[in-house]
Amino acid sequence: MSNYKHGIRTRRLATQLSVPITSDGCIQCVVGTAPVNLAEDPYDTVNKPFMFHSKAAAIAGLGYCTDFKNYTLCQSMYASFDVFAVAPIIMINVLDPTRHVKAELSKTYEVAAGKISIKETGILLDQLQIGSPGESDKLYEPEKDYIASFNADGTVTVAVVSTGAATAETSLKATYTQIDPEAVTYEDVIGSYNVKTKKRTGMELIGRVHQRFGVVPSLLLAPGWSHITAVNLALNAKAQLISSLFTAKVVSDLDTAEGKADGMENVKEYKDRSALSDRNMIVCWPLIGVGDYKYYFSAQLAAHLEYLAASNGGVPSQSPDNKDLKITGLYTAGGEEILMDLDEANDYLNACGVVTAINMNGWKCWGSNTAAYPSSTDPLDRWINIVTIFDYIENNFKLTFFQNVGDLTNYRLIDEVVSGFNMQLNGLQGSNDIAGGEIVFDHDENPIAEILNGHIMFHTRIGGYAPAEDIENVFEFDPTITQAALEGGGE
Questions:
Q1: % of the chain with per-residue pLDDT over 90
Q2: Whole-prediction pTM value?
């Protein structure tokens, strides 16, 4: 290439990692299990909320792998950071590396090219011991005699230090302990509160999210666990009132195992039998596939809802219905692929308040109803986007005017609340997130006895936009148009 530049040329830069778009109006809070042995500090990962703004932070904090079945939090990491590139996300891991472990194992490995490969996952590096395979049971020192590190697939490579004491060994004995995700139970996910230790576990930590991070966990989910009815109902109980102030939605799955909701014809019966009929629930069916990965629909739908809100200025007013999903197929828990047409998706799933997906020149989220439908047809209970925007507005009211609790009950306070909140509602109306809204202080609703007792009441009316779920156009043949065209052509 000449040094004197005259002509036209191009050059390429390395692909940059996508930067997640952020949302504070529709934040996921996920409870489940993570491969904590891969985290920077495996013993500081259990039963505490984390807030991650990037996948790198999530990997450092909790570890990551693509064994989505055993490590359920990785489903949401993948869906949020790799598929939709959205943040932040709250995560609560319940896999305890001091309790959920397998029995200690010892195996001998041949040294090849100065290293041994331990083809096992879940190994806790701090408990790994490398020694001589002879009867002496001599143990070598980490970092001085050998260096152990994880491979991309979670297995371990032990490299012998050339200046260490193990350099002459032709084989080495490895003794290790592995975490055991199968030892985690749904009771661990539901969690508890210990009166003596004052410690909370599992879902009981959802109420600590706002105190710790100053954000409202709007979407509660536990992919890989929420198909268990007890977990689903416990999530819904938490969604009713978080931190004694806020409300949330539960994004959950139906169990597609054999004998349960393993076919679309069985979905309504299984949903009804599982008592899934609350306005706070968004129920999904079945599992989804992305290439070789298969994981629970709730992980992708929750990330999708957060993405829709983040793309709309953080306001969760959009319906997920007919929006693009990043999937390649639908499956049962047994791995059987599910194929269904539009009528089947409508009649077997949407008609009983279940969200699914259809392939219509690309995979689309299909469904606008919460689990309350068809028991309730009230727009405030039925439509996903109206439920989410109402929760968003109500939570914002509490966040905005909590500072006024304890102020003197005078007209200045009343005017501050009425004027301030009407400005918020007008803004949402101007951006077409709601049809309109108004807050008033009605004297008839505030008798003097209640005011003197420290209680004042405001009244807010909001009009929302229902999704255009059924668009109909009536066509007819009009012979007069034909006649007019022929008569005009003869002149």
A1: 92
A2: 0.92
